[in-house]
Amino acid sequence: MRSVRARAALGATVVVALALVAAGLAALLVLRANLTDQAGLQAEVAARETAGQLALDVPYDRLETGDEEDHPVQVTDEDGRVVAVSKDLEAISGTGTDRVTPQPPPAAPEKGDDDGDRDDDDDDDGAGADPGRGEVSTDEPDFSNGTATVDGDRADYRFASVEATDSAGLTLTVHAGAPLAAEQRAVASVRAAMLAALPVVLLVVAGVTWLVTRRALRPVEDIRREMAAITASEDLSRRVPEPASRDEVARLARTTNETLTALESSVDRQRRFVADASHELRSPIASLRTQLEVGAAHPELLDVEGAVADTVRLQVLAADLLLLARLDAGERPGNARLELGALVREEVSQRTGDRIPVAVVVSAPEPGGLEVTGSRGQLARVIGNLLDNAQRHAVSSVTVEVRAERGGAVVAVTDDGAGVPEAERTRIFERFVRLDDARARDDGGAGLGLAIARDVATRHGGRLTVAGAGERGARFELWLPGPR
Questions:
Q1: pLDDT tens-digit map of 157-181
Q2: For 356, which of 2, 116, 324, 401 is 20 to 30 Å away at the CA?
Q3: CB within 8 Å of 71: residues ≥ 6 apart
Q4: Global pTM?
Q5: Beta bridge partners of 363
Q6: Which domains are assigned to the chain?
Q7: Which residues pair with 367 in a beta bridge?
Q8: Residue 477: in which H helix or E strand, if any?
Q9: Cα torsion for 91, 92, 97, 103, to the nearest 10°?
Q10: Cβ(76)–Cβ(97) under 8 Å?
Q11: Helix (H, G, I), strand (E, B) or coil at 355
C-alpha cells in the first residue's frame, strides 16, 4: 500500500475498530452484570418471602411461592433433603441438589416420661419466649446461576439461597430463582445493534480520514509536482508554493525553498568557479604555448625564465583549485595538535624571497596556551596566503602576532599598505576577487588565496576577518579554537 492516504485511512479504521470492540465488550459486560444483579435481587425477595412463611411454621404443602414459572423454589433441610418445591417444578440445577421430589421428614422419637420431664424443664427454661415463631437469616444470601424446567419449559435462572429457622429449631434453606431471559434478550439486542452499527461507523471513519488526509496532503502534492517540474527544467530559480498555515507542511515548504536557494547559490558559485578557473588557466597556458612555439621555431628567442614562471604559476593555480575542490567536497581537517606559535615561526623562516622582512611576535601566557587542533598542511597554507597578501600590499613593514584569546589562539597579520575599504571587507574573501583590477596578473595572483584561507578557517571551527590597521594598512586576524 503505497498511498499515504490509504495507509492513514486503514490505520485510523483499525484503531477505531479496536476501540469500538473494546468499548462494546465493556458495555456488554456492565449491562450483563447490572441485569444479573437485578435478577439476583428478585430471586432474593422471592426466597425471603418463602423463608418468612417457613419461620411462621406454614406447612410445606401450603407454601405460597408466587408465580412458579418466574420464581421456582426449592427448600432443603440441614441434611440436604428436599422438603418442598414450587408447583410444576420438573428439574433444577445450580442449587446444590437436582432433586425436585419432596422427601418425608425422618420419624420423630416417641416421647417417654423422661422426655415429658425434659419438656417441662424446657418449658420452664423458655418462659417468656415465643414458641410459635422462627426467624429468617439476615446474612447476605448466596447467589448462583442454574437452570430449571417448569411445566415443560426449560430456562436459565439466577438463584438466591436464604436460610430460615422454624419454631422447632430446624434450619431450612430456600433456593428461589429469577429468570435470566430478560438479561439475555437485552444483551443479545445490544450486541446485535453494535455489530450492525460497527461496519457503518468504520466506513464513515475511513471515508472521513481519507478526505481529511487528502486535504492535508494536497500542499505536499503541490510541492512534489513543483519539485518534479524544477528537476525536469533544471531551473533552480523556481520555488515551491508555501501554504499560509503554520503546520509541518508549511515548514517543509519553507525548508524546501531554503534548500533550493542554497542549491541555486551553490550551482551559480560552481559555474562562476568553473568559468573563472577556465579563464585563469587560459592565460598561463596560452603564454606558455606561445613561448614554446616561438622557441620551437626560433630557439635563440626562447624565454626560458618566462616559461618556467608561467609553469610555476600554472602549478600553483592548479594546486589552489584542487584544494578548493577538496574543501567543497567536505574534506574534514586533521586532528593533530599543533603549537601555533611554532608553526608561524617555521613558515616565516622558510620565506627567503620576501621583499619585506616579517616581524614575528608570540605572546603565550602559559605553556600550551597556543595549541590548536587541525591539519598542519592546511593551516600552514592559510598563514602562507596571509603573508603573501601582506607582502603584495605592504610598503615597508609586515608583522605577525600570535596570542591566546577567548578559548583559542589568534594569528594577526598586519601590513602598512593601502588597506581594504570597509565596503569590500566581505567581498575580498570571495573566489577570484581582486580589488585592484588594474594590477597585473603576475603581481596580483588569481584571487584565490584569501578565499582558501577563509574556507580552511571555517572548516577548523574558526574565523578569518579583516580590519583597518590604524591610519593605513590592513590587519587580518585568524582565530582558531583550542584543542577539543
A1: 999 999 999 888 899 999 999 999 9
A2: 324
A3: 42, 43, 46, 65, 86, 176, 177, 178
A4: 0.50
A5: 403
A6: 1-105+131-234 (no CATH), 236-331 (1.10.287.130), 334-481 (3.30.565.10)
A7: none
A8: strand 474-481
A9: -50
A10: yes
A11: coil
